Amino acid sequence: IVTLIVGNKLVVANLGDSRAVLVRDDRAVQLTIDAEPNIPRFDEQVRALGGIIYNNRVFGSLATPAAIGDHRNMSISEDKRKSIVNIPEISLFEFVPGRDRVVIGCDGQW
Description:
3-stranded antiparallel sheet, 35% strand, single chain, mainly beta, 1 helix, 8 strands
């Protein structure tokens, strides 16, 4: 996940099982959607790339349908890796410097 603040704009790029949360007036607003195989949008993307979802995992073994990084360590074959979404979702939000805060996390680390 990547966040960029420019003036009063917040740009968030998300890929995988990471999450960004905007804290405004002591309220948390989730900015991203965790990439999970059971979400129809990700299921459709994986299928469009030639993959399948079963046991709520890509090819029954990979927990996230979207990833970037060290593909050599993935638990599926090189041919099947082509079905993993590798283009981040990019969103733009209003941001008030001095009032708003952004918290990012992955796998329970915030």
